[in-house]
């Protein structure tokens, strides 16, 4: 049974919630079926006065607030009241639960009195739990939103990655002339299942509208590795949608994952991310040229694509050169926080 929790706030005449020793205190609390914005809760209770219980009071706090006083007026928005229903019950609601967040929960049993006040038990023990990542259902909702603004497709021919000179020197000297995957940072949606888990190498492919070539400016460094698109993206590669977000600006970012079929990254993504048809999607396509038989590549015009390639890349497969433009640090997305108020790129679950 699903229970939509609402804010509790009934007080006795002296401003406090009355207590009755007869009401049983919840024992052995168990949290299960945790999603990014819901969880199931159940507990054991002594039989005494069980029939008098009309409501459950739930004290739900982010973990750092677990020592806050129960039912202080200023804390009321985190305190929930639900009608007494058979357990386990589901607590859900994007207005108070966020993904990948540690919470504490404690419970009281309560009996509503004829004057509207509540008699309550003592608080149970405090239990800790952490909400989950976005599921593929949530990611498909993000995907649909991203498709709306992707814009028309522009042709491109290379993937590129900007870094400082030291990065490429280290790749040559200490990594066998290879760029190696690293764990994705926490940029983008808070519930993204790839943040802090998926290993890969970030590439760009967006082109300037007037030249059809990569821009000469970059926030990530003055040295650029360029590789022909078919080296990373071809019929032996699977493509996945990873995220859609903005950073309090007019620009929107789409994260895509390129994973060679059967690779470790591919297996990771199959379980967590929506797969895209490489020949027919709104963001990044790879098709056979009807005339010459080669591969033709297109990217979406109206979003900035961040492409994660899940395997090592040999520097010998491309070229490294210094760009002539500026290093625009303000455009960096490293650990960038998503704007939770943007209606374009948020969905109706915890941020």
TrEMBL record:
InterPro entries from the UniProt entry: FN3_dom, FN3_sf, Ig-like_fold, PHYHIP/PHYHIPL, PHYIP/PHIPL_C
SUPFAM superfamilies in the record: Fibronectin type III
One protein family per Pfam: fn3
Entry GO terms, CC: cytoplasm
Domain Fibronectin type-III, residue spans: 25-134
Superkingdom assignment: Eukaryota
Signal peptide annotation: none
Database matches in PROSITE patterns: FN3
Residues passing through the membrane, by range: none
Name by which UniProt lists this protein: Fibronectin type-III domain-containing protein
Species whose genome carries this gene: Salarias fasciatus (Jewelled blenny)
Gene coding for it: phyhipl
């Amino acid at each position: 049974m699903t229970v939509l929790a609402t804010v509790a706030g009934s007080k006795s005449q002296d401003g406090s919630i009355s207590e009755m020793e007869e009401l049983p205190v919840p024992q052995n609390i168990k949290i299960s079926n945790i999603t990014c914005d819901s969880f199931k809760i159940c507990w054991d209770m002594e039989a005494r006065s069980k029939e008098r219980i009309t409501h459950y009071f739930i004290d739900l706090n982010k973990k750092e607030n677990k020592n806050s006083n129960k039912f202080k007026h200023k804390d009321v928005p985190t305190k929930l009241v639900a009608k007494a229903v058979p357990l386990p019950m589901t607590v859900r609601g994007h207005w108070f639960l966020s993904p990948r967040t540690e919470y504490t929960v404690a419970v009281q049993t309560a009996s509503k009195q004829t004057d509207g006040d509540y008699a309550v038990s003592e608080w149970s023990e405090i239990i800790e739990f952490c909400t989950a990542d976005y599921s593929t259902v949530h990611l498909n909702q993000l995907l649909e939103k991203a498709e709306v603004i992707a814009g028309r497709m522009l042709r491109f021919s290379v993937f590129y990655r900007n870094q400082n000179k030291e990065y490429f020197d280290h790749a040559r000297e200490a990594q066998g002339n290879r760029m190696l995957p690293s764990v994705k940072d926490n940029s983008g949606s808070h519930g993204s299942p790839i943040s802090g888990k998926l290993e890969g190498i970030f590439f760009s492919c967006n082109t300037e509208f007037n030249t059809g070539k990569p821009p000469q400016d970059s926030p990530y460094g003055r040295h650029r590795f360029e590789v022909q698109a078919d080296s990373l993206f071809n019929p032996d590669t699977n493509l996945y949608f990873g995220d859609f977000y903005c950073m309090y600006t007019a620009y929107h970012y789409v994260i895509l994952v390129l994973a060679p079929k059967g690779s470790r990254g591919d297996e990771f993504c199959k379980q967590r991310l929506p797969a895209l048809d490489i020949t027919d999607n709104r963001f990044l396509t790879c098709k056979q040229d009807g005339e010459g038989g080669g591969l033709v590549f297109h990217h979406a015009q109206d979003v900035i694509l961040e492409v994660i390639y899940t395997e090592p890349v040999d520097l010998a497969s491309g070229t490294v050169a210094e760009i002539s433009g500026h290093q625009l640090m303000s455009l960096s997305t490293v650990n960038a926080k998503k704007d939770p108020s943007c209606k374009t790129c948020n969905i109706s679950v915890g941020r």
